[in-house]
C-alpha cells in the first residue's frame, strides 16, 4: 500500500474544534485546585493558631510579671487555664533543641530580668535576662502547628512566640535623720546651721521640732525650684541637671511648704544666710526621683506622692553645699562641766554622688555623706595639781550609711510593703589631737597625736604635771539588716532605725576607758612636798571627765543629727509606694 497524503482540511477542523475543552481543563487542573485549597485551609489554620499562641504568650507574660516571685508557676498556670495541655517548663538550652517529633510536647521558657524603659537604649536591648533585681519577665512559648491536609507530604511547622512584660513598682525612701528627738538645748543645732549657712539665728527647740515634723511634696518643691532657676519648660530631670545656690533651694522649699507660716518663716530666715547666696549645689546630688524625672514640669505623678521632711532637706542642702569644706564652729554650749568648745566639721561627698533621697525600683541605693568631726574641748578641772582646765580633743570619722531598696510588693493577693536593706556607716573615734586644716582632705586621714589632757607648769616653781592619753573606738563588723514597711507605716512615713548592735555603751565613756600617762615635775628637790600617787591622779582625772560624758554624748548626737547622720545608726523612711500594673513592653 502506498503513502497517502494527509487530509489537511480534516486536521484544520480538528484544531478549530472547541467542544469539551472545559471538561478537559477541569480534569487537568482539579487536583491542583484541590491541593491549593487544602494548603489555604492549613495556612489559615496556622495563622489563627499563631495569633492564639501570641495572645496566650502575652497573657502569660503579664501574669508572670505581676507575680514575679513565682513567675514560672504563674505563666504555666495561665496556659493551663486556657486549655493548653502538655506544656513543659524548660530552660534556655532546651529551647534551642528541636521539638520532639511526636508534636505532643509544648515548651515554655520563662526568664526573669531587668527592663529599662530608656529611649537611648535600643528596644531589643532594654530587657536584660537575669538582671537583678528583676522587674520584668520574658516568656517564650513554642509548639507544633496543626496541618489538616498537608501533613501527609510535610512536617508541621514549629510556631514560636515571645512576649516581655514589666511591672514597675517604685518607692520613695531616704536614709538620714529627721531630728525626731533633739535631746538638748537647741543652741547646738543653731550653731551648726549658723556655721554652715552663715546665719546668726537662735532657734528654739520648738522651732526645730516644727521643722522636723513638717513634710513637703517633692514635685511641688521641684516646681518651685524650677521657678527659682528660671526654667519654664522641660522635665524634672532638666531641673535636677542644674546647679543652684542654697538660698534658691531654701526659697523654693519655703514656697512649697504651704499654709504653715511658722515653718515657712524659719526657712526664709535660713535662706537669707550670708553663705546661702554663694554656696552652690548640684541638684542631682540632692534628690533622685527616678522615672518621675521624665514628667514635664508641673505635671502631677500618678499613684505616687513622694514626701520629704523639711529639716531633712535643709540639712542635706547645707551638707552637700559644704562638702569637702571645713566649717569651724565656736560655741558657748553651756553644758555642765564644759568651759569652752571649738568644733571643726568636714563633710565629704557620697560615693558615686548618690543622694540621701531617691525614688526608684528595687536596687536603688541612697547614702549619707562621709563626715569628720573634731572637738577641741575644755573641761572644768578640779584645781590643785591638775589645774582648772582639762583639755579633751576628740576626733571622729563616720563613713556613709547606706540603704538599698530590695523589694516592693504590690501583689493583689497580699498587702503592699517595701523592704530596705540598711547598713549604718562605719565609724572610728580617737582621743587624740589632729591638725584641723587636714580634715577636709578626704583622700587621706589626718595624723593623730596623743592627747595632752593636762599640761600644768610647776606650781609656784615647785610641782607641775603633764598627762597624755590616747584611745580608739571603732564600730567593727557592721552587717546589713533588713527592715520592712507595711502600708500603714508607709502612709504615716514612719522612721525606723538600724544600729550596729556592737556598741555596748555610749561613745564618750568608751573613749575614756584609757590608762593615762602621767609625768610629775618637781623642782627644788621636792622641799618635803608630799605628792599624790599617779594612780590617784589618774582616778581623779577620769572621775572629772566621766562627769561630762553624758553632755558630750548629747552634743555629738545633735551635731551629727543636724547633718543627717548618726554614730553607728541609720534612720530609714519610706514615704510612698507606686504599684503600676503589669504591662507588655515588647
Note down, in words, how this protein is organized.
By secondary structure, this protein is of the alpha+beta class. The protein has three domains: 23-167, no CATH class; 186-323, no CATH class; 333-356 and 364-482 and 492-571, no CATH class. Helices cover 30% and strands 30% of the residues. The strands form six sheets. Strands 11, 12, 15, 16, 19, 20, 21, 22 and 25 form a nine-stranded antiparallel beta sheet that branches. Strands 1, 2, 3, 4, 5 and 27 form a six-stranded mixed beta sheet that branches. Strands 13-6-26-24 form a four-stranded antiparallel beta sheet. The model has no long low-confidence stretch (mean pLDDT 81).
Properties at a glance:
single chain; 586 residues; alpha+beta; 3 domains; 9-stranded antiparallel beta sheet; 6-stranded mixed beta sheet; 15 helices; 30% helix
How do you describe this structure in short?
The chain contains 15 helices and 27 strands. It has 586 residues and is of the alpha+beta class.
Describe how the helices and strands are arranged.
Blueprint: H1 8-16, H2 21-66, H3 71-81, E1 87-89, H4 92-95, E2 106-115, E3 127-129, E4 136-144, E5 158-166, E6 169-176, H5 187-197, H6 205-212, E7 215-217, H7 218-228, H8 236-240, E8 243-245, H9 246-257, H10 261-271, E9 280-282, E10 307-309, H11 310-321, E11 326-331, E12 338-347, E13 357-360, E14 365-367, E15 371-380, E16 389-398, E17 402-409, E18 417-423, E19 427-434, E20 448-459, E21 463-469, E22 471-474, E23 481-486, H12 487-491, E24 495-499, H13 507-511, E25 517-522, H14 534-546, H15 549-562, E26 569-579, E27 583-584
Parallel strand pairs: 1-2
Antiparallel strand pairs: 2-3, 2-4, 4-5, 5-27, 6-13, 6-26, 7-10, 8-9, 11-12, 12-15, 14-17, 15-16, 16-19, 17-18, 18-23, 19-20, 19-22, 20-21, 21-25, 24-26
